[in-house]
Amino acid sequence: MSPRQAERSDAAPPPEGILRPVVSGLRPRLAIEPGWPVDRKRVVGEPVVVQADVVVDGHDLVLAWLAWRRPGTERWGRTPMQPLGNDRFEGAVSFDELGRFELAVEAAVDVVGSWARALAAKRRAGQPWAQDAAVGASLLAEAAERARGADRRALSAAARQLAEAASAEDLDGIDLPALCALASRHPDQTRVVRSPAGTVWVDRPLGGASAWYELFPRSASPDPSRPGTLADVAALLPELAELGVDVLYLPPIHPIGRTNRKGRDGAPVAGPGDPGSPWAIGGPEGGHEAVHPELGTVEDVVELAKAARRLGMELALDLAFQCSPDHPWVRQHPEWFRHRPDGTIAYAENPPKRYEDVYPLDFESPAWPALWEALAEVVETWVARGVTVFRVDNPHTKPVRFWVWLIERVHRSHPEVLFLAEAFTRPRMMELLAQVGFSQSYTYFTWREQKWELEEYLRELTESELAEYFRPCFWPNTPDILPRHLQAGQRAAFVTRLVLAATASSCYGVYGPAFELMEHEPREPGSEEYRHSEKYEVRHWDRHRPDSLAPVLALLNRIRRRHPALRQQRFLQLQRVDNDQLLAFAKTAPVPPALDPEAPAPLSPWPTSAEPASGTGGRPAPWALERGPVGDVILTVLNLDPVFRQTGWVELDLDALGLPTEQPFVAHDLLTDQRFRWQGPRNFVALDPAEWPAHVLHLTPLSHDR
Predict the structure, then answer these.
(1) Residue 598 designated active-site
(2) What pLDDT, on the 0 to 100 scale, is given for residue 617?
(3) Residue 628 has pLDDT above 70, yes or no
(4) CATH architecture of 205-253+281-316+372-567
(5) Residue in 203, 246, 318, 393 annotated catalytic
(6) I need a surface site. Which of 218, 273, 582, 692 has the fewest CB within 10 A?
(7) Residue 537 has pLDDT above 60, yes or no
(8) Contact call for residues 697 and 636 (beta carbons, < 8 A)
């Protein structure tokens, strides 16, 4: 006997040898990268739809389920997966509780279904069936032992009927399909195969659909003779609510250091009265848990958050984990910072940029556990004060495992807290931050200009597995970024980017007054920095200027709130246009819109149930599997040329959009209230940037138009 043969003869059969089904080909994959906490994200009521191949030897039927549970619990909830043919199955589940769930695909041989199919075949062929009835009685009795309540009683009764069946008429009185369905709910657990589990993080609706608005409190004063305060921001809340803002985001509101303070436009030396950069955090008045005395008090922040909530908004604070040289931590914990050979603390650099007013924290310090605890306390302090949304500054410059730890720690007590990752960095790092738990992510949208690159990026964000866990938040501008395509100051360019952000992404934001008032002067040619940057000086904005884009912003947010298609991200389909200056895409939702303009619309487009979820917090969502017409269809067409009128023919995929192929339908422009009668897949558009450079069209069958 060879050594190999001896080795094989001594090996024991694997314990899973009796498990026959094989689960493979999961799409989207449930475990993208082992070890990271989030494989996919959803909001309350939003379905997770999974397909998988379930293959078994021989000719037996198989059962497949989408199974879920809370991590650390033993019991799995199940919803049946439906066969699509060729050993492919699909299932869906949604959740009405916040937090993390494990998700897997389970499969087992359908012993009762296979038996019933064989029995029916024998009866059709006129073959003896008495022994088969006895086998079925035994199978149903075993299923009854695993069941409880009414199911147990029904299966036991059927088992007795089968055991006593003496004629074809006796069998005809037994509803075999119903029994098979009943028995499938109680499989033999020792024969169930389960795929490796992935994770789903469930957010409240704001995590999946939100309109952000950024403003600097020190520039919120209505009086040009003084800087603004948090009280001035509170006075603006009704106006912001009219704009349809969901999240009001404030840059750092903490004391600002004086050492190496930057001057106007980032000058290395500050002049008299220069307020410095809010991101140079910390001074004698305190650090990350303090409020700049010129802005107000901690109590002002608490009241501002409450007032915003009463108006349907939430307050987001900037989370910038860095310090000015005057931060209390520099004196109290010098070990949390990196020192040069001469003993001085190293300031932040991103050559050729130098940030002498900022000390980065040293996450590789031997004292890192205490540093992590201090940073967690910062977040928990603000959560205790009523803040549940954070825009995180440069998270890619801190260790990924720190964010895993911090976000999980916060979410254990406060699963409602949302984190937006401001990480303009390498694609894999941006994706990884989304996987470790950030609710939303900044994107490359700000720099995408041409039709081909916009289409390519939208496909990546909506058609790849990235869509399962990476929630893009589109920003046309930020205080750091005045993109090239806005620097000419053309109104049409600003409107186009605003419409594109608000309709292509369910989450978007604007750097407020600067965008509304079309601020477009760069610091110098070729720069993306603003001239007279609000990062380094107090600005006074004429918010009611006649040319303000505020009415456009308000209109778009009203449209978003009325149309669920715009409050979800993954159902986006690019449409062909025979003009490279025209971009078209459709978004759809599986539920009808709230057409009553007075009716409040929920942020989430997904229906939810008032009934508590069964078992572990999940609820089957069979409607997600229906292939019928969608309820809400929005077609956006944009002229990417801010100067010249462009025309073209849009080619619609009517079948995919659930629209009639032979009958006319209505294209209602929600921006202008114009209605067009369209028919067939090819329809003509003309967009003049001197008027409106975009259509936002609600497409409905002619009989449904109101």
Answers:
(1) no
(2) 38
(3) no
(4) Alpha-Beta Barrel (3.20)
(5) 393
(6) 273
(7) yes
(8) yes
